[in-house]
Model the fold of this input.
Amino acid sequence: MKAQEICLPSENETKISAPPPLRITDYFIQQSARVEQWLDRLLPGANESPTTIHEAMRYSIFAGGKRLRPTLVIATGEVFGAEEQALLPAACALEMIHTYSLIHDDLPAMDNDDLRRGRPTNHKVYGEAMAILAGDALLTQAFITLTKMRGISPENQIRVIAEVAEAAGTIRALIGGQVLDIENEGKPATAEELTAIHRAKTGALIRCCVRVGAIIGGASESELEHFTEYAEKSGLAFQVADDVLDATATSEELGKTAGKDEAAQKATYVSLYGIENARQHAEQLYQEAIAAVRQTGRATERLEAIARFIVERKN
Done:
């Protein structure tokens, strides 16, 4: 079998310099375009045999979305002047993992959803079997992509791969959080149980994005601790905001089916605290997140703006 050829940018694309002031919405647009260019290079082409699986992978990857997770990798790496040739493959790998989780989450055996990012879900277009395989393929492709990082020491590359693998796993991580979420459907949950679910299901990948950006950039252990706290608080704030949106926004606004959590009798921050108290909780988490990252003395204004965006977003 012929090894997959991946076309990377030229060696002239080296450092990501400190960015000029830019509105956070414009920054997301800018970084989304960069991420999508790299994703197009790093994924097998739609015409590559077997074509159906590659079409299915690309269908979900290029379905839109905020690109929050890869943007967090980039924004964190920018704080330290990270190498683009290491930073962008890592950002793309984490977006691949996120997208795989969405494909599987929408399956009939999971959340059974027909709509994602305003489009029919993967299994509605390609069938359940191909959707399962598309998710599996994206997860695998993520780790192929992490081997393509350049301008990073072998030790830090191994560290990044380990961080990503652990975040995608079962112990206080993505899959483990989904298991807890399924097992707690229809059951009352305490605040501690709800936080445990979402620190894993949603928070682990967000935490990983920030830590990976910092590791690639060469953060000290002390700085990494502060950035990790920022990520953990922001990850929980993301989920609280998500629960509020599920209860208050329309399907058209969300790009996915609204009210699914209540219909499935899932434990949410809204069911536990109510809408207004949940919003206040998200605001408190935001304040704690920016307080943590400011302790580094680094130029973290963009990460602070991303945390604010997480709390105030409309979809």
